[in-house]
Design goal:
Layout (H helix, E strand, L loop, with lengths): L2 H36 L15 H21 L1
């Protein structure tokens, strides 16, 4: 094969590859824009979790402290 034929064939393959990528990207952009119009933009806000009363935290701390103390005592 001559160099001109190889260059022509390589340019054809380059154009085919870049064209395929360009077409796929355009289709992807179109698909994303369609899906973004179908899906609601704002997600409904979930209510904030209720705070645990401080007494419950103190009870947990006391239980953990007692368990650690008992574990250390049994060693």
């Amino acid at each position: 094969m001559e160099i001109e034929q190889l260059l022509t064939q390589s340019l054809q393959l380059l154009g085919l590859g870049m064209g395929a990528v360009f077409i796929i990207l355009i289709l992807l952009i179109g698909l994303i824009s369609i899906v973004s119009k179908l899906v609601p933009a704002e997600v409904p806000a979930t209510p904030a979790p209720t705070a645990v009363p401080p007494a419950a935290n103190n009870d947990h701390i006391a239980a953990i402290t007692a368990a650690v103390h008992q574990f250390r005592k049994s060693r």
